[in-house]
Design goal:
Layout (H helix, E strand, L loop, with lengths): L2 H34 L4 H15 L5 H10 L11 H21 L5 H16 L7 H34 L16 H35 L11 H17 L2 H10 L5 H21 L5 H15 L7 H29 L3 H23 L23 H15 L7
Helix pairs in contact: 1-2, 1-4, 1-7, 1-8, 1-9, 1-10, 1-11, 2-7, 2-8, 3-7, 4-5, 4-12, 4-13, 5-12, 6-10, 6-11, 7-8, 7-10, 10-11
């Protein structure tokens, strides 16, 4: 196949992967504020889309890790070819679609790395993979980042509840807790998570497109992503984010634990901190794993909350199988495309058919903004009412609860 045509095909598939990454990972930022009623569902995904777009322009460190770190390329290394990158992307896209259909918040990042590594090993050999970079910037962050984020979220949740606890000074009995302010805070923390997600996850597709341009000889080895690559990837992930990914929002917002405003605030703060730190260091972090770890940690930090460990186990299995499963699909596709143009066509047609089939299956049990998470008065929890209106509401509430109150 003509090299220009192959490069165009790979770039198109990479941007589609970026789109699936967007709707797969919307839940990382917006599942908890939707679950607590801080933001209306459709408003939440629109806000996340805009901030993902902005975040994609803020850093390129992760893109450089992907384009010139994990797979050896260029002078003195292994010259990876566009067809191998195509095979790796196919593994990543199919795994993303499978886990989305099942509502599992798996890692789009690890699906990408798994597919790329599997394809490189099958198409070139084990020596094409930079194991040191893989260990330092992918494997170790995958192990430690969700644990650290979970511990931070646990501590923040305990502190938040301790600082806002209210008791009657005379009797010592527990009073009604007023933690509605955390809902307002969630608007800002969830926005920060969405912005941070753009600085990390959008970079991975930029790195892949940069890698294929280098492999085709149209860009110098070791150089970063071009402006048009940054803009295209930012737009693709933003559109994907706006698509919603409601199945995974359901799992993150209600499947792991019952989320209250203080918990959501703590989880989002720890998630954003971990992602921004990793983006600065060039770690190709799984934002999904960090967000899931934070939600679990916040659930453990609130007394009386039950963490649904069965669902946690399912998600953990998804994490465990992501790298090898995507790698196997990437390797099989690499073996197919090595046969020539017929193999590339068969792989493209089979992949497209699989994606369409999973989409049609998903329509049989549709999950959307109307039924992803059941929240009473969703989007109305944060109210910017005037002081007089608040005073009238409180007076009416007192009158209702104390009919013989002399102040009536």
């Amino acid at each position: 196949m003509d090299i220009t045509l192959m490069v165009a095909l790979v770039i198109s598939l990479a941007l589609f992967f970026d789109f699936t990454n967007g709707f797969h990972d919307t839940a990382n930022a917006m599942a908890t504020p939707i679950a607590t009623g801080a933001i209306k569902p459709k408003t939440a995904v629109a806000l996340a889309a805009v901030l993902n777009l902005v975040g994609a322009f803020l850093s390129t460190e992760v893109a450089k890790t992907v384009s010139g770190g994990i797979i050896r390329e260029g002078s003195g290394g292994i010259q990876i070819t566009p067809d191998i990158i195509f095979a790796g992307l196919m593994g990543a896209v199919l795994w993303n679609m499978i886990t989305w259909l099942k509502g599992l918040p798996s890692s789009s990042s690890h699906a990408l790395f798994g597919g790329l590594i599997g394809a490189a090993i099958a198409g070139i050999g084990f020596h094409s993979v930079n194991l040191e970079t893989l260990l330092q910037k992918v494997i170790l962050p995958a192990v430690f980042a969700p644990v650290i984020a979970g511990l931070v979220a646990y501590a923040c949740t305990r502190i938040a509840y301790a600082l806002t606890s209210r008791h009657d000074p005379e009797t010592g009995s527990k009073l009604t807790q007023k933690r509605g302010g955390f809902r307002t805070g969630q608007i800002f923390t969830s926005s920060l998570v969405a912005l941070a997600h753009g600085t990390n996850d959008a970079q991975k597709t930029m790195g892949i497109i940069t890698l294929v341009l280098i492999s085709a000889g149209t860009q110098e080895p070791g150089s970063g992503p071009q402006l048009w690559v940054i803009a295209a990837c930012a737009l693709a992930i933003a559109i994907g984010t706006y698509a919603g990914g409601w199945r995974i929002i359901r799992t993150m917002g209600a499947g792991l634990t019952e989320v209250k405003p203080a918990q959501g605030f703590a989880a989002e703060s720890s998630t954003a901190s971990a992602i921004l730190a990793s983006s600065h260091l060039g770690f190709a972090l799984s934002t999904t794993q960090v967000a899931s770890g934070s939600v679990i940690g916040s659930g453990m930090g609130r007394r009386g909350t039950t963490v649904r460990w069965g669902m946690v186990g399912r998600i953990a299995l998804g994490w465990l199988f992501t790298l090898p499963a995507a790698g196997i699909v990437g390797a099989l596709t690499a073996l197919l495309v090595k046969t020539g143009i017929a193999g590339v066509v068969i792989a493209a047609v089979a992949g497209t058919g699989a994606v369409l089939y999973m989409f049609l299956v998903s329509r049989k049990s549709e999950v959307g903004h109307h039924n992803a998470v059941e929240v009473e008065e969703a989007g109305q929890a944060v109210r910017w009412a005037k002081k007089k209106a608040l005073a009238r509401a409180r007076a009416a509430e007192r009158a209702k609860n104390n009919p013989k109150d002399p102040q009536r």
